[in-house]
Fold:
Amino acid sequence: MTDPSSQRNAAQSALVGRRVLATEIAALESLSDMLGEDFDAAIAHLTALKGRVILAGVGKSGHVARKIAATLASTGTPSLYVHPTEASHGDMGMITPDDAVIALSRSGETKELADMIGYCKRFNVCLMAMTCKAGSTLARQSDFLLALPDAQEACAETRAPTTSTTLQIALGDAIAVALLEAKGFTAGDFKTFHPGGALGASLASVADLMHGADAVPLVTLGAPMSDALLIMSEKGFGCVGVVDKDGQMRGIITDGDLRRHMGPQLTSKSAGDVMTADPKTATARELAANALRRMTQDPPKVMQLFVIEEGAPIGIVHLHDLLRAGLA
Structure:
């Protein structure tokens, strides 16, 4: 039997959780309302930056700064985290006048940032302040203010960093995506930085997985079916593509087409008589995940796609190739 007190405690915990989320959602909405010309100016500067974006912070802000640096680096903006204390003991040399420093501090008075602020001013390094306090030392010394709403922490009694760090992470994501779009960063570019695991597989292009021109099973429209059957058997893809005299893709013959035309006259027919016209095809640059979706979800379902460039087949990709790559 379930202890009634345990049920009450669980219900109370859910109420606390919803209260925390409501507090942070309200703060995020305030942050959204605050974004404007200052944010636009900061993004414009970062887009044109010759060097790297340096993230700095201490404590929980330091953990968030590391996360923002990693997000920026993976989305096409060279970035790294520099610990303010380590910077005061030699790591300041990692920061150059071509860089921009984004310093995170809820209060804007974090003493460990003092040397870094002074360094930026002395050597004309762009300094951006991510803080809740527009009148703080950090904000006043910065070139750009990435203002956060001075929202109540979710744990009001202890003021443990909760809402404030959520706001920092969200603003960091906003910066990363704004820069990504401003630079025209693509899924292909993203794949370069994420070659491994399921994410790398999901960003693979058809060109990464297709079989090249030498492997493509092809016959012409007028070829006898005896030739088509021989090519199908040799190439082992369970199909043969049909092209016209100019090499343009016109149709496909699959095992299903053979069954539909099975009879004593099959070998006397031409490939053009048996083929299914205008088959599904793929392009080399499209995501392999999109090709898999069209093969398995969009009717008619198929086992292979010819890869086409300017109307002519340049490769072929089989369902099994996509599954082996980890796309399923």
